[in-house]
Amino acid sequence: MENCLPLLSDDLLRVIVSDVKNYALSNGLGLRCKESPNDDMMQLLPISLFPSPFPRATFEFAQSIQKSVNKLMHAVSLDSSFLCEQLETTIAVDEFTKNLLLTHLKVLKEGSAQENSLGLFRADYMLNEEPQLLRQIEVNAISVSFGGLSNKVSKIHEYVMSKYNPAMHKKESFPQRDTCFMLAKGLTDAWDYYGVASAVILIVVEDTVINVYDQKAIEFAVYHTRPEIKIMRKKFSELPSITRLVGNQLLFVENNEVAVVYFRTAYTPEQYNQSLWDLRFLLEKSKAIICPSIHYQLAGVKKIQQVLTKKEVLEKFLTESNEMEAVYSTFAKISGLELNEQGNAALAEALNHPHKYVLKPQREGGGNNFYGEEMVGILSSLKNDRKREAFIVMELISPRPIKNYILRPSYPVSSEPEEIVGELGIFGTIMGNKNEILFNEETGYVLRSKAVGVKEGGISAGFGILDTPFLY
Q1: pLDDT score at 465
Q2: Quick check: is 5 in a domain?
Q3: Is 360 marked active-site?
Q4: What pLDDT does 460 receive?
Q5: 441 classed as catalytic
Q6: Contact 181/225 with Cβ under 8 angstroms?
Q7: 305 and 359 assigned to the same domain
Q8: Disulfide-capable partner of 309 in 58, 123, 166, 331 (CB 3.0 to 4.6 Å)?
Q9: Which of the following is catalytic: 138, 284, 418, 442?
């Protein structure tokens, strides 16, 4: 299927654009204005005008392996010796990853009052065109976004197709998953395991939140399904002065016992200072269930992703052959840049064929990667420098472009459809400890797209749009 677009006159296009913008804003599909973020102003979240075709079999395969991806992340996170060994070269040159690992090791040494960890993960994939293969881009472990809004986009696209392209509209082509409520259930299930009726769920956020409506959608879903659960929302930076441990284990923020800590921040160095690293340690050693725990966050760093692409490593954590092979089939080629023969070969390959690779640091969130000449410049400057070990080099995926219209705030819609490529995210929720997994679920999807030629895909970072897979 080429696209989901009907033949449109300029006049009809303007009508549809106006209709969709009004529908979107009427249903909370927006961002705070970056220029003046406040509670009184909302702007349109960048979205596609129509859904984008996506093969049903590929979509369902990505769904089918998510519980295995969750299980893999859980198993890796519990192997502290493996984390230390694999991150040894990285932490020598990456202060942020070093602080994460040192905090984790300090918690292991001093002990934690809570054995369970909660993960709300998202595995991201692109569908390579030639050959047509699903390729994992990354697994996001902390502050995973757009689960609160993906369903709203799907409903918009169902509306658009039924009203403006009825000949192609099929309800069964839209995946029926309420991602927002399923992610909220992960939080409430963790709250139930904590077992104190007066305890709260603490949502930890940045000082300035642009993607607030995605976060609030999950918060409101908790309220609508479990109104007895109190939610607190606090800035990461304000927590040190209002947080304490009682009896060396119960976590209190102000005068509220905390059952679950849900991070929507804390994934970049700029979001920390020493008092916040001290706070992170305090949270991790408390009785509260942390989402994600620091060892879950470590399992998501790019170096670990790279090492897991080796089959002999992967099969240590996924011992069932069929499960391991299914996950392994999605892996792209990823190489480390250690100062050794293999690292030198990977660097030379990337320098000789820069159009085939992307350079990635150990970070989550959009806007961190390097491509083309920028990648060449960085790698050339680090040829004989250990600082190169802070990066991995990944094979660049080449998905088939789809034509669609893009709606962006304050920009006119092009009269001609643009070519876009999509990145499918599959959400997963897991909670467990070293002895057992308490629950493990696939919990929905999001499709993020971007114009051809745009390298990054982060929507809050200003690069991409929200989209919907139209299954065929």
Answers
A1: 97
A2: no
A3: yes
A4: 64
A5: no
A6: yes
A7: no
A8: 331
A9: 138
pLDDT of residue 9: 96
Q: Please indicate if the annotation marks 176 as binding a ligand.
A: no
Within a domain: 272: yes
**122 is annotated as an active-site residue:** yes
Long-range contacts, 110-115 (Cβ 8 Å, 24+): 110/285, 111/285, 112/284, 112/285, 112/286, 113/248, 113/249, 113/250, 113/285, 113/286, 113/287, 114/286, 114/287, 114/288, 114/289, 114/290, 115/433, 115/434, 115/435
pTM above the 0.70 mark?
yes
- Ranges under pLDDT 70 in the chain: 365-367, 456-458, 460-462
Active site residue 464: no
In a domain, 276, yes or no: yes
pLDDT at residue 458 in the model: 66
Question: DSSP string covering 354-413, please?
Answer: GGGEEEEES--SSS--EEHHHHHHHHHHTTT-GGGGGEEEEEPP-BPPEEE-EE-TTSPP
- Give me the pLDDT at residue 461, please: 60
* Catalytic-labelled residue, pool 28, 343, 365, 372: 365
Q: Are residues 272 and 365 in the same domain?
A: no
For the question of residue 302 being annotated catalytic, the response is yes
340 is catalytic: no
- CATH of residue 381's domain is 3.30.1490.50
What pLDDT is stored for residue 456 in this prediction?
A: 65
3-state DSSP: the chain helix, strand, coil percent, rounded to 5?
40, 25, 35
What pLDDT does 36 receive? 87
369 is in an annotated binding site: yes
pLDDT tens digits along 296-327: 999 999 999 999 999 999 999 999 999 999 99
Question: Pick the catalytic residue: 32, 122, 177, 287?
Answer: 122
Q: Give yes or no: 448 in active site.
A: yes
State yes or no: 110 annotated in a binding site. no
Q: How many domains does the chain have?
A: 2
Is residue 363 a known part of a binding site? yes
Q: Please give the residue range of the domain that contains residue 136.
A: 10-332+397-471
Active site residue 88: no
**Is 349 annotated as belonging to a binding site?**
no
Q: Is 145 a catalytic residue?
A: yes
Catalytic residue, chosen from 152, 448, 457, 460, is 448
- Of these residues, 52, 77, 116, 140, which one is catalytic? 140
